[in-house]
Specification:
The protein is α/β, with parallel strands linked by helices. It has ten helices and five strands. The protein has a five-stranded mixed sheet, sandwiched between helices. Helix 1 packs across helix 5, helix 2 packs across helix 3 and helix 3 crosses helix 4.
């Protein structure tokens, strides 16, 4: 399916479209577990702009666990948070999910399912791959892989109004986790999800700002202009008119040739008389 077809599908199903992002522990090897702990998950319903939050600090507050004691109960809190999230996924079984590079076991839906299995020994509700759409990949498909400088998310944010006061960089998120600043982490996650929604709308309108636009994008964008489409339609009509005219002209010539052949045939069939000799 082309990027254009994917965007059309998402546009037609925005009432069933959710944008998801999550924050976690360091993605490297210096954690107590093989896989990083999940801190919070933010899910935004595109059709209504309603945010759904799943976070260990919210569950800790409900259970009356103090902020400084969260680390002592982290496994239980994380497991319950993931249980709520995958319950939400199950409730929205026909949904489409838009994300930013949540594509593998290191960071992605598989990582969330793995942590859920580790903490609860239960299998997570699976989202079919056909219902997952990578917003980053869609943008690059339209504008080209070299449309912005690395790191791409930071570049896109600078160009497209994404530098929100609550947004944290990757390093800042790791530092916030180490400092047990869970509310700060979740606010950063939510700010990214709101920005993803902003980028999705810009992409649907072909208005994403980039450093470099590839020739393929320029040509496609040019051909999508209403005036160009109108000229193309006129050119097609004119070409069809010429073809019809040519066909009629050929038909007329053929009829003339057939008439001549028929005339000659009629002459050859007439009887001939010889003059009598004196």
């Amino acid at each position: 399916m082309s990027a254009k077809d994917k965007l059309k599908l998402l546009k037609e199903n925005e009432q069933s479209l959710f944008i998801v992002h999550y924050s976690c522990q360091n993605l490297n090897d210096n954690n107590e577990n093989y896989s990083p702990r999940i801190t919070s998950i933010a899910v935004l319903h595109v059709g209504s702009s309603t945010m759904h939050s799943f976070s260990i600090h919210l569950i800790a507050e409900i259970k009356g666990i103090a902020r400084e004691d969260i680390n002592d109960h982290y496994d239980d809190l994380e497991g319950e948070m993931l249980d709520l999230f995958f319950g939400f996924v199950a409730e929205n079984d026909n949904a489409y999910w838009l994300h930013w590079n949540m594509s593998n076991i290191n960071y992605g839906f598989e990582a969330l399912a793995h942590r859920y299995k580790v903490l609860t020994q239960k299998d997570a509700k699976r989202i079919p791959d056909s219902r997952k759409f990578n917003l980053s990949a869609l943008i690059l498909s339209v504008y080209g892989k070299n449309c912005v400088e690395h790191p791409r998310m930071a570049s896109f944010m600078k160009l497209n109004d994404g530098e929100h006061r609550d947004n944290l960089s990757g390093k800042e998120e790791v530092d916030a986790f180490a400092a047990k600043e869970y509310v700060k982490l979740h606010k950063s996650t939510m700010s990214k999800v709101y920005w993803f929604q902003h980028m999705y709308f810009l992409l649907q309108q072909n208005k994403v700002r980039v450093h470099n636009k590839n020739w393929g994008y320029k040509v496609n964008h040019f051909l999508e202009r209403p005036t160009v489409k109108a000229l193309g339609f006129v050119a097609v009509i004119f070409s069809l008119f010429q073809i019809v005219q040519l066909g009629l002209s050929s038909l007329g010539n053929n009829e003339q040739q057939l008439a001549k052949v028929e005339e000659q045939s009629n002459k050859s069939m007439q009887p001939t008389t010889k003059a009598s000799a004196d």
